[in-house]
Write a structure and sequence with these properties.
Layout (H helix, E strand, L loop, with lengths): L3 H61 L6 H25 L6 H5 L11 E7 L13 E14 L2 E13 L6 E3 L14 H12 L5 H10 L8 H26 L4 E13 L4 E11 L9 E6 L4 H8 L10 E3 L7 H4 L4 E3 L2 H15 L2 H20 L4 H29 L5 H11 L1 H4 L13 H12 L6 E2 L3 H18 L4 H11 L24
Parallel strand pairs: 1-3, 5-8, 5-10, 8-9
Antiparallel strand pairs: 2-3, 3-4, 5-6, 6-7
Helix pairs in contact: 1-2, 2-6, 4-16, 6-15, 9-10, 9-12, 10-11, 11-12, 15-16
Length: 526
């Protein structure tokens, strides 16, 4: 006899569990739909922002043509806007990819590369030419794509040949995939892109000058300035994650140098320039990791330094910052950063007294500083513990004597004089200036970061940025990679060429492997 009551209760319990399970799944689906809706809304807002910025740049481009700029300013302005437009187009494409095939129909046909250039064929064939049905595939044709390559002083053409293989029985067609490139379906190889970037950001050659150089090689049509600008913009977007990773690596270190240098920023519409700044941060010579990161900003406001260091967030950087007496850093010291002074700045003020006025006070001060720097030359190759011990034994007595001497001289010199200013600079910052004596990880001055800025200052006349911060930020990112490569003893061209070849297939989680201090030049077959 079946117990219908028990069976009914069992069915009701199963039905209840089924309903609860379905309700849970519906709740999860609703949460997932809500999350995707938020993600879509965020992406759309980002795309709208980029689209608006692109429209503004297009208006600036046409407005600039009617402005009374000189020829060089106009060239620099136009190439910068073209580069920004290409970067924006790349970012929009990444945020919202076009449907398959749509881009090919809209892409204009490019001109053939000159026939007189040497060509190097690179064949791409399937690893296996046997069909799944067991038949041997037959080669029925090929696709050929030509890319313009560059090695210093020599243009060549790479012919990428992809054979087509078909099975006669089941009509299966296979072909090796298209190799990944930083600029998909473009003509430049990584070598040519590296050359353009190094010439612009390391050799200080604006694109209009590079255009002239390439024209003399017979490539005026293939390498027009607008084309070069598009490449620079697209490369800037692709290299940004690597520059971000370099900044994150830099902020892992407890001691950093910081400095800033002015650059001209041209604003279309008012035909005037105003002073923007390139902020520089780098590791010390005592650190095995050699890295420098540039941060472009439209002013010298201290907020830019705080933003770079992630302050006032409790998880921001709270190490020791070697810098000058610029007030923009002061707020950082109130947020947990330790100030380390710049001994060379203090010395420089007394050196000016001696050079300009043959001041006896300046001469005597220089003798004290010479003793301090003699110690630094001797301890530069030692470890932190040894450096600290020797500094305390030999530098501390000299520093104490210098402090006592300046205090006495301060009483004898009239107020408002250049001598008073030199003495007060040191006395007012004495704790920061001498902090290095008790810390073997600290350098005595900031000359190291000044040396990293010096090559940048050479090209500042070629940097006229177009209103927005985009061009300046892009320049700072590329220069960070180029200058860090130099610090690690690498040829910037070889470094950029290799990472531009590897970036398209490098997993985002392993992008740190391509940082300059971890990079090794690829082995070449001899």
């Amino acid at each position: 006899m079946i117990d219908t009551t028990h069976l009914g209760q069992l069915n009701a319990l199963q039905l209840r569990e089924t309903v609860l399970c379905l309700a849970g799944k519906m709740a999860m689906q609703e949460a997932e739909i809500e999350r995707k809706d938020r993600e879509i809304a965020f992406k759309q807002a980002f795309i709208d922002k980029l689209t608006h910025e692109m429209a503004v740049l297009k208006r600036l481009k046409f407005a600039a043509q009617s402005e009374a700029y000189n020829a060089e300013q106009k060239s620099l302005l136009e190439e910068t806007i073209d580069t920004d437009l290409a970067a924006l187009a790349t970012e929009i494409e990444q945020a919202q990819p076009s449907p398959p095939g749509q881009d090919d129909k809209q892409r204009p046909k490019r001109q053939s590369l000159p026939e007189n250039l040497a060509r190097r064929e690179i064949h791409h064939e399937p690893q296996n030419t046997s069909c799944a049905c067991g038949c041997q595939l037959k080669r029925i044709g090929q696709d050929v794509a030509e890319k313009l390559d560059y090695q210093p002083g020599v243009f060549t053409v790479e012919r990428h040949i992809r054979g087509k293989w078909v099975c006669a029985k089941c009509e299966t067609l296979i072909q090796a995939p298209v190799p990944a490139h930083v600029i998909d379906k473009g003509i430049p190889t990584a070598g040519l892109l590296a050359q353009v970037l190094v010439a612009k950001y390391a050799d200080h050659l604006p694109l209009y000058r590079q255009e002239g150089i390439f024209a003399r090689a017979g490539l005026a049509l293939a390498l027009a300035r607008s084309t070069l600008a598009q490449w620079v913009g697209q490369c800037g977007v692709q290299l940004q994650p690597l520059a971000d990773a370099l900044r994150a690596e830099l902020l892992k270190h407890s001691v950093l140098h910081a400095d800033e240098t002015p650059v001209a920023m041209l604003k279309p519409g008012n035909r005037k320039t105003h002073r923007a700044y390139l902020w520089s941060y780098c590791t010390t010579t005592y650190n095995e990791t050699r890295a420098v990161v540039f941060d472009f900003a439209d002013s010298r406001a201290g907020q830019h330094a705080r933003d770079f260091l992630g302050l006032p967030d409790e998880y921001g950087w709270h190490g020791k910052l070697v810098c000058d007496d610029f007030g923009g850093y002061k707020a950082c010291f109130e947020m947990g950063v330790t100030e380390a002074g710049w001994l060379a700045h203090a010395r420089r003020k007394f050196h000016e007294l001696w050079i300009n006025h043959k001041s006896t006070i300046g001469e005597q001060a220089l003798k004290f500083f010479k003793q301090l720097y003699d110690v630094e030359r001797e301890v530069s190759e030692l470890d932190a513990a040894q450096r600290r011990r020797i500094r305390q034994e030999r530098s501390r007595p000299v520093a104490d004597a210098l402090h006592l001497w300046m205090t006495e001289q301060r009483k004898k010199v009239p107020e408002g004089s250049a001598t008073i200013k030199a003495i007060d600079y040191s006395l007012n910052r004495w704790q920061a200036l001498t902090r290095y004596i008790d810390d073997g990880e600290l350098p005595a001055d900031n000359n190291w970061v000044e040396n990293q800025i010096r090559p940048i200052a050479i090209g500042r006349n070629n940097w006229l940025f177009a209103g927005s911060l985009r061009a300046g930020k892009r320049a700072a990112a590329v220069m960070s990679l180029v200058q860090s490569a130099r610090l690690n003893g690498h040829d910037p061209y070889a470094y950029l060429k290799d990472i531009l070849e590897r970036l398209p297939t490098q997993p985002a989680s392993r992008v740190e492997e391509l940082l300059p201090h971890r990079w090794h030049a690829p082995l070449t077959n001899t």
